[in-house]
Every structure is written in structure tokens, then in C-alpha cells.
Amino acid sequence: MVDSETIVALSSGPGRAGVAVIRISGKQVRFALETISGAVPQPRHASYRALRDDAGEMIDRGLVLYFPAPDSFTGEDVAEFQVHGSRAVLARLLSVLTRLPQTRLAEPGEFTRRAFEAGKLDLAAVEGLADLIDSETEWQRKQALRQMEGALGDVVRDWRLRLISAMALLEADLDFSDEGDVADGLVTQCLAETSVVQDTMRQALGSFAAGERVREGFVVVLAGAPNAGKSSLLNALARRDVAIVSPIPGTTRDTLEVRLDLGGLPVILIDTAGLRDSDDPIEAEGVRRARRKAEQADLILRLTAPDSVPEQISDPVREVAVATKADLIAPASAGALAVSAVTGQGLAALIAEIADRLGKTAGEPALVTRERQRIAISDALAALDRAAGLSVDHPELIAEEFRIAVRSLGRLIGAVDVEDVLDTLFSGFCIGK
Description:
Layout: E1 6-10, E2 17-25, H1 29-37, E3 47-52, E4 58-67, E5 78-85, H2 87-98, E6 103-105, H3 110-117, H4 123-134, H5 138-148, H6 151-176, H7 186-206, H8 208-216, E7 218-224, H9 230-238, E8 256-262, E9 265-271, H10 281-296, E10 299-304, E11 319-323, E12 337-338, H11 347-362, H12 371-388, H13 395-413, H14 419-427
Parallel strand pairs: 1-6, 7-9, 7-10, 10-11, 11-12
Antiparallel strand pairs: 1-2, 2-5, 3-4, 4-5, 8-9
Helix pairs in contact: 4-5, 6-7, 6-13, 7-12, 12-13
């Protein structure tokens, strides 16, 4: 990134809309405002202006906002033009803006990258912002918002400060152990104080599985005998024809996945082949895949039709008994949720049951949600565990393990050496963010 360049992009969604937002950031913002809208508006106050090109011809009328540095999203001068969302208006306004000196179209994620480099966001908060933009369900929104607001970054900074303070004790023991005003037992004191950090790190890592599931989606598998109504139930829950439904047993031979929002939770609902012995090698492979998906699932819906043997529940916490085709005959399975894909009977109760089961697994919004974060904390914790196992007679070795831990935590929030992470992360943002 060239800091002297001013960047501009459409920050709202592309395509025709009632209102669109164009954002500009950099040293040429004031010049752009004076050139296009006639004057720089009062900071943080919307001003209704006529927007004109370099020949004085009006492009559109809209709201103009100005956010002076350093109190802006990027830390630079920032302006927004809120105009009519016409493709012609947007194309003309972007063309005029990019013809200004040292002004160009922004790369994906470049506004957020400038915010990060200006210290407005740490790397964990940037990841939270990316997740918030991509969030599709209420649980994902809550978790991403907590990350973006700095929940993880604040905790990690506290860990680092505690470890740096402990390192100061170690350095005092190493460099000034022969001085009269340096107390004995500093290494032991240092290790005792950092044990609290180790405990909170372990607690944070314990939230990772649930946090990752909320980001990626909980896996719910429909399992049962052929013609148990799995594909029909999938279509009913998805509210569209996703799977082929046929009275012929064995229609579904491979796994079929669909992403849904069930009770505010992100769910990957998987239709599988009917569980039975088959001489057909293709169907047999489908059954094998179905069993494997069931083993990996967060929740299994065991479907039983009125004319089939009830599915056995081996894990009451992870499995739900569902009696299908309830519009034809009352379910014979006691305790099973009766549903009908035809009439919709019992679907609301089933969705509520799925949300309740998975909600207990998710718990509160997780602190650690990405594999990169988990690895950084795990590396730091491993270093502290190694330090705790060393003899207090070797403070230089303990100090080195502490340096490793501090550096690992620094990489998590972007305080040190994260260039390899930045390019990948910011390239995943949309242009204009």
C-alpha cells in the first residue's frame, strides 16, 4: 500500500438501489470534497449537496459526510457520498473521483487494512469485522460483533502485559541478582503469577469448538431407513426443492448438504442415503458415507416412518427421534417428535428442539473462533507450560519460553510479524470495506 495515495470505492452493495454509498480515504479527501461538492462540510454532520464533475455539470444530489483524521475509521481523512444507487450515477462519480490527483480505486479490504495499520483495530477485531460482514444468522452476528468490539484483543493484551511484567522480574533476577535491593525468589514469584494466565488461556481454548461451529455451521444429519422421509423433511426445512423425492427406496445415494438458519443458528443440514444392506456398490458407498457423516455430526435426526422399524437412539444427547409422515398415521414411537413434510405439522417443534440442543452446545459467544487464534494461544500456553516445568535455577531458559509466549500472543493481535496473515485476510474482504 502506498500511504500517499487516496483510495475510493463503492461501499454499499453493487447493483441498482435507492441509496448507495461511496467512500474515500486519504490526503486528497478535502480537495475531493471542495472539487465535487463545493466545500468541506462540518465534520460528522450530513450536508445535502449538488455533486458536480470537473466541467461543472451536476452528477447527482446527495448527502456528504466528512470525518477528519485521526478520528475516522482508517485514521485518515474520510468522506462518504450518499447518492442514488443508479449504475450510471455511481460510474460517473467514481470516474470523476479517480481522476483526481493521487486517487485510485481501493483494493479489497484496503480501508480496513489502513484502519489496522493506524491502530484503530487489532487483527482479532479485523477478523471479527470480516465475520460480521459474512454473518447470516443471529448467533453469528452476536459472536462476530463481540470479536469486532475487541473481546479477544482485550484479553490477549492483558495476558501480554502480565507476561511482560513477569519477564521484568526474570530480567531483574538475571541481571541484578547480586544487588542488595533485588529480592530472592523472583523466579518462583514470576511462575506463580503467570499460572493465572495459563488457567484463563485454557478456558479460552475450551470455547474454540463452539466458536468454530457458530462460524462454520453446526452439522445436522438426517438418518434413517430408505423411504423414511429424509429428503422430504430436508425440502420442508429448506422451504424449497433441494432433494429428489421418490417412492422408490434408495433414491438418495450420496450426501446432500444445504445451509439453513434454524432458530438463529447456522446449520448445515445433510440428507443421507437410507441405512440398509445393499448389493448395489453405489448405494453401499452412499450408506458408508451416511454412517461417516453421522459419526461426525453435532446432531442426528433419527427418522422413522409409520411402516418401518423405529430407529434406535444410542446417544440421547446427540440424537433426536423423529416420526415422519404424521399426516398419514399417528407415530408408534413413544417420545418421538411427530412431523409431516406435507402439512408442516411438527416442523416448528422440531426446529425449536434443534435450536435448543445446539444452543446448549454453543453457549455464550466464544472468545476464540478461528484456527489461527487457537494455534497462537496454544503455542503461547505450551511455552508457559514448558517454563513451569523448568528448574528455578535456570531463569534464562524460563525467560526464553516467556519471550516465545509473548511473541505468539503478539502475532494473534497483529503486534508483530503478521505480513503472511494480512494479505490472505484482507483479500477476503469485499471492495469498499
